[in-house]
Write a structure and sequence with these properties.
Layout: H1 2-28, H2 38-57, H3 68-82, H4 85-97, H5 101-131, H6 136-141
Helix pairs in contact: 1-2, 1-3, 2-3, 2-5, 4-5
Membrane topology: Multi-pass membrane protein
Subcellular location: Cell membrane
InterPro entries: FluC
Length: 145
């Protein structure tokens, strides 16, 4: 029970850290975010890359296998606090309520397309690092996921 409580507290602290990163990132992007919420878009894209990159690299068959606790703290805590899908949804609704349908649709398309590209890039980059420096026979044995 103590281990579960400690893990829960660490995830919460990771979430708080991710939330602060999101806040500071949003502030840093304010001057570019007048027409579209670029801060939110960039945070979601980088968070998508980070969660896939870390998750792939630290999986049990990854190059830097990590404990489940470490993975939970980063992926659920930090990335969960950092990414801003709820903010994305609210900002899109606000654009629609303002009658800015084109900008709302652009926000949806850019966010989804860039996050999917980013999560794919994170996964592929980590997979390349997982197999780098291994003999070809070891690479063939390693499952892709």
């Amino acid at each position: 029970m103590e281990t579960r409580l400690a893990t829960t507290v660490m995830i919460g602290l990771g979430g708080a850290f991710g939330t602060l990163l999101r806040y500071w990132g949003g502030l840093a992007a304010l001057r570019w975010s007048q027409w579209l919420p670029w801060g939110t878009i960039l945070i979601n894209v980088s968070g998508s890359f980070a969660i896939a990159f870390f998750g792939t690299l630290t999986a049990s068959n990854g190059r830097f296998a990590a404990s489940e606790t470490v993975r939970l703290v980063f992926m659920v805590g930090i990335c969960g606090g950092f990414t801003t899908f709820s903010s994305f949804s609210l900002q899109t609704l606000d654009l629609l309520r303002q009658g800015a349908v084109l900008r709302a649709m652009l926000n949806i398309v850019l966010s989804l397309a860039l996050c999917m590209a980013s999560v794919t890039a994170g996964y592929l980059t980590a997979q390349a690092l997982n197999t780098a420096g291994q003999p070809a026979s070891a690479q063939a044995e390693r499952p892709s996921r």
